[in-house]
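Q: Structure tokens for this one, please.
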Amino acid sequence: MLVIGLTGGIGSGKTAASDRFAELGAAVIDTDQLARELVEPGQPALAEIVAAFGTECIDDHGQLHRARLRQRVFADTAARQRLEGILHPRIRAQVRERLAILDAPYCLVVIPLLVETGMRDLVDRVLVVDVPEAAQIHRVMARDRIDAAQAQRILAAQASRSQRLALADDVLENSGALDTLQHQVTALHQQYLRLATAPLS
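A: Here is the predicted structure, written as tokens:
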């Protein structure tokens, strides 16, 4: 099965792109969704996070307090690396397990931190959703209701735009209207179906 790794910086439009691929019938594995499942109450990863960061990262209902933890890890590189050390090996294992049971021409694996986590080996091609950094900051501030300084810290903790583009086999340019993005996705979906069914050379 052909495996496409979809990545892009925060606020680039990865979800809009992957949602459109799913509408077209593509199999989609979202590592952000896997991460959310891994930190549900009772999961070993959540217990490790509490051991590492204290009970202040848990809300009154025993759920992970994402905003509080995010603020902490993006202000402290060592803390962010510690959190990644808890989550990323588990995410990688989950992706492998889910790919192994899929029956589809191709699968899109949404990996926001594909460059940073070295998960390139999980995929056959890399698709980057690309926007200028100014647009990312504007979108993240509006979406997450954070200030420009926090948005900048999140961007600074991620791979640069040029680092992502250097890995790209395909690029979705997403600084325009949603319709424009969806047309690009439709064209790529057809391309991936052709690649997935092409005879091996």
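A few notes: The longest strand covers residues 2-7. The CA atoms of residues 23 and 186 lie 10 Å apart.
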